[in-house]
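Lecture 7, part 2: worked example. A protein chain together with fructose -6-phosphate.
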Amino acid sequence: MKTYKVQSYEDLSKMAAGVVVEEIKENPQAVLGLATGSTPIGLYEQLIRDYQQGKVSFKNVKTFNLDEYVGIHRSHPQSYYQFMRKHLFQSVDLSKNHIHIPNGQAEDPKKECERYEQLLQSQGPVDLQVLGLGVNGHIGFNEPGTSFHSRTHVVQLADSTREANARFFNSKEEVPKQAITVGIENIMESRQIVLLAYGENKQEAINRLLEGEVSESFPASILTQHPNVTVIYG
Ligand code: F6R
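Predicted complex, written out as C-alpha cells:
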C-alpha cells in the first residue's frame, strides 16, 4: 500500500486526478469504479478541468459506481445518480451507455444486485477503483462486520452512516435505510485502487487503516492485502 499525506484538500484532489488521468492515458477504454460522497468532489472538479483543457477524454471509458440508495428515484436530488450527473457526468464526454449505477428504484433490489453483478463480470474487472473511507471504516456501503467475501448486495445502513449522510437531506429520517453496494470481494478484484480520506473526522479511521490489522470489523483493512493500493489522505 502506497500512502501519501497531503497538506490540503486541493493537493489530494489534484494527486487523485493525476492517478485517474494516467490510467486513462495508458488505457483509453479503462473501466473506472467511482464513489460518491464529499471526498471525491474535488477530484471530479479537477477531472472536468483536465477534460476542458484537452488533457483527457472519457469517450471510451466505462464507469461503475459503487453504490446507490434503495427506495429513492434516480431523479431525486440526493440519489447517487444525480450526484454523479452533477459533479462529473454532465461535464465530460462520457457516453451515456458507458455509465453504470445500481438502480435503487428497482422493484426487486436483490434481482438488481444480480443484474449489476453480471454487468460487472461481463465488462470488468474495474481497472481503477476510487474509494472514500467511512468514519467506521466502511468502503462502498460495506459496513463493519460485512464478509470480506461479499459481492453486490443490499445493505442496512449503519446508524452512524445515516447520521453522517443526513447533512445532504433535510433530516436523518429522510436518509434511506438501505442501499445497494458492490461487495468487498468486488472491490478487491479491481486492478488498482485509490482511497481518499480528508479531514479531522477521518483521522481515527486512517490511523486504524495504516496500523495494518486486518479485520472484518474494519472493512477498509482488507485493502492492505491488495497489491496495488494508493491511499491519499490529509
Ligand atoms: C460513496 C461510498 C462511501 C463514501 C464514504 C465516505 O459512494 O461508497 O463509502 O465513500 O461514506 O464519504 P464522504 O466522502 O462523504 O466522507
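The mean pLDDT is 96. The pocket of fructose -6-phosphate is lined by residues 35-39, 66-67, 132-134, 138-141 (CB under 6 Å). Keep this in mind for problem set question 3.
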